[in-house]
Amino acid sequence: MTEYIPHTPEDIEEMLSAIGLKSLEALFSDIPEEVRRRYRPLGLPRGDEEKVRRHLEGLAKRSTGRGLIPFLGGGIYDHFVPAVVNYVISLPGFYTAYTPYQPEVSQGTLTWMFEYQTMICELTGMEVANSSMYDGATALAEAALMAHRTVGGRRVLVPRSLNPQVREVLATYAWGAGLELLDVPYSEEGKLALEGVPEGLCALVVQQPNFFGVIEDLSGLKERIGKAFLIVYVNPIALGVLEPPGAFGADVVVGEGQVLGNPMGFGGPLLGIFATRGEHLRRMPGRLAGRTMDAEGRPGYVMAFQTREQHIRRERATSNICTNSALCALAATVYLAALGPEGLRRVALLSIERAHDLASRIKMLPGYELAFSRPFFNEFAVRCAAPEEAVARLREAGIAVLPPGLVAKAGLDGAFLVAVTEKRTEEELSRFVEALKGEGYGDDL
Amino acid sequence: MGTIYECGASGRKGTSLPPLGRSEEEILSFIPEGLRRKAPPWLPEVSQPELVRHYTRLSRMNYGVDTGFYPLGSCTMKYNPKLHEELARLPGFSGLHPLLPEEEVQGALGVLWELSEYLKGIAGMPGVTLQPAAGAHGELTGMLLFKRYFEDREELEKRVKILLPDSAHGTNPASATMAGFKVVSIPSDARGMVDLAALKAALGEDVAGIMLTVPNTLGIFEEDILEITRLVHEAGGLCYFDGANLNAYLGRARPGDMGADVFHFNLHKTFSTPHGGGGPGAGPLAVSEPLVPYLPLPQIVRQGNRYALDWDRPKSIGRVHPYFGNFLVMVKALAYILLLGDEGLREVSNGAVLAANYLKERLKKTYKLPHDRLCKHEFVLSGEGLGEGIRTLDIAKRLIDYGFHPPTIYFPLIVKEALMIEPTETEPKEVLDAFCQAMEEIAQEAQKSPELLKEAPHRAPVRRLDEARAVRQPILRESPA
């Protein structure tokens, strides 16, 4: 018997007798005998709590990367997470609850969903936000599908400076739905270089800041593409100091919300942000909490506009999404509530400050230069003659960056990418610079 | 019900951050003026004690598995082991960046590899991808695998249809549509199973495959499962199995032995990882031999004592997740499998099916049971005929007053006034008995004092909520006073 299953032999006996069966086997007589006969066990003995813990702890220790200082970003960032975030998401009323289909016993979940939607609208400058998607990449893919449903057209303009991992997911969805992705190049300075606007366009995607950390100028883009959607893929931390995409006429704002109070977690679970304009409400995917009243006229919350969703609309639903990233969205809600407007701004400013400190010191080193001249947020590409060797030297010093192989996927050769959050200390920045100097540069100190 | 926006006061904060090294103006000068944020976002300003009290209060207004019995059909609301939460927070898992080189993440790749191997064994199928983030994401990935398979065989032009029993989960038709297929519904017969004659009539060269839920959403095992998959395969189609109901036969039967080509797991159902109020889950897929070449990139392989990522898969559909899927959820599922072992896996389905049949036999004396036969991990009652004007919604809301979470209601659509009950294996018999007693008392109340049901719940944090009003007068965000 395992500790999770309470049935004693007496319980089993009594229940079987109430059913009118003699054995547990008989409960499975409706599965074809041929199928049952083919069953092969895993050959796995029963474990116990301590044994399982030892095994998993052993695997956790085996990843040497856990000890490296992450100047590594590329879509996932090592930001500070206040202790109160983990405390709240560990409250059993939150993490052991299901989707709030029965609102009277789910007011806790529905209330924070409503708070989260408010915060995302505020960050993005949009009118309506859903309560989460799986991750930024699938949120972007769903935004493209929504653009196609709304304006027709099968072509999507996608920057070469879009995160390559995110682009790969978008490409898979686009192929499934019969959409065509067209490249938009970036200029020598690193910003979006939109030239022509093709026929049959349903959306233009822009990443803010882009994969190389460069801050894009969103003004005038919506005017150039007409009724096609302007979809902006954001880093929500950057929106603490950047003008929100809503101010530039964005139709949908999506993004990766991991940075809002969630751990890097080897890339999952993540948090897909999805916000749009009020006029597109009925075409958007995902769950929405709405405020209403109970039978006594007191305010309360329910899931609203469920007729868009798969469990009601089936093949005509706006998306197949059901389970989402609720608990990660709760973490984001608590994170933003703990920080407040000043705290979020501080995180963004600290990230900019430390990133620019490091960048300016790297620029001074002979043989190293920044790949792009445009203003950047907290990430930048460094070009040098032997980038692999530089990355190896950083590794020797216990530092991880995004290696040239992964940067090249966005069309930039001979460079590595450096991300700096508010967690990186002065000592770590110095160590970074020292490591790049390596032998022969010691005199410059 | 107050939101966090109603707490706090201007200038309060819930956490502390290091000071800036220079003035704000100096730092902001790195951003072109026109791109700087003009007005700060409206966010709460609360101290930490206020924040904790607010969310503790909210959490108490929620019903959870740790609160009580949660017999939500098709959702498998079983107990979430506490060991798992500790393991997922180990720094070697939670603090790991997904783009580190593979030699730096051997332990994490080990988790992925071990889980993949166990899932292959449990499914009895040779290929696995762990990328899908949820069941519906797995379904979409499965449909894309179908699509690539037929594209590769140059049959995609003609094979445009996916067959779906009318008892299917709503995600199934939505997923098939997203992959560009047309959905054709197959009726159930009097037994509540796929109507074989209708299936035969629908099969042809235009059919890409079928999506089956096994056991189906009535909780009934498709007795003709081998015949169904044989017919589909003979017609050149593929078979997708929705694995939401794996709790019904875990450790006793394998979808691979029933003819499945794609099978999705819900780690947040069968493998006990928490639902989190709606997510995150994880929806790995197992696939049959012909579909292995099309699995998402990358695949995790073992070479001697080390793990590696295999990118050399030219026929792959590509990525469906930017990294490796919901890794921290997988850590929990792996711990669950390791603790249970073969014996424990079988105890899960034994307990789940025993509890469901026990409840069914007791409750059918009071409630209408449209399909009276052996069930698997769940069964469907009808709330019809309980009393004048009494609806299933009223029964559900009244259960809240008795301290239980209501079952799934109005699904599947093929049963009128459906009450879909899934007890899982983790409830003591005393709780099952108490639930039966509550259901029996509610049936009596429906006769004697129906207003008790119609006005329920009486003992929840709020009374019955007006869902229509939320659409008629939508308020989807807080507004500054």
Describe the structure.
The complex is a heterodimer of chains A (445) and B (481). Chain A is built from 14 helices and 14 strands. Chain A is an alpha/beta fold and 445 residues long. Chain A has three domains: 9-49, no CATH class; 65-79 and 340-444, Aspartate Aminotransferase, domain 1; 83-335, Type I PLP-dependent aspartate aminotransferase-like (Major domain) (Aspartate Aminotransferase, domain 2), CATH 3.40.640.10. In chain A, helix 9 links the parallel strand 5 and strand 6. In chain A, helix 4 runs antiparallel to helix 11 and helix 7 (136-151) runs parallel beside helix 8. The longest helix of chain A has 39 residues, at 326-364. Chain A is globular, with a radius of gyration of 25 Å. Chain B is α/β, with parallel strands linked by helices and 481 residues long. Chain B has helices at residues 24-28, 48-60, 82-88, 91-94, 106-123, 135-152, 171-178, 196-202, 225-234, 327-363, 392-401, 429-448, 451-454, 467-472, and strands at 127-129, 161-165, 182-186, 207-213, 238-242, 262-264, 285-287, 299-303, 306-310, 379-382, 408-409, 418-421. The longest helix of chain B has 37 residues, at 327-363. The radius of gyration of chain B is 25 Å and the shape is globular. The chains are: A alpha/beta (445), B alpha/beta (481).
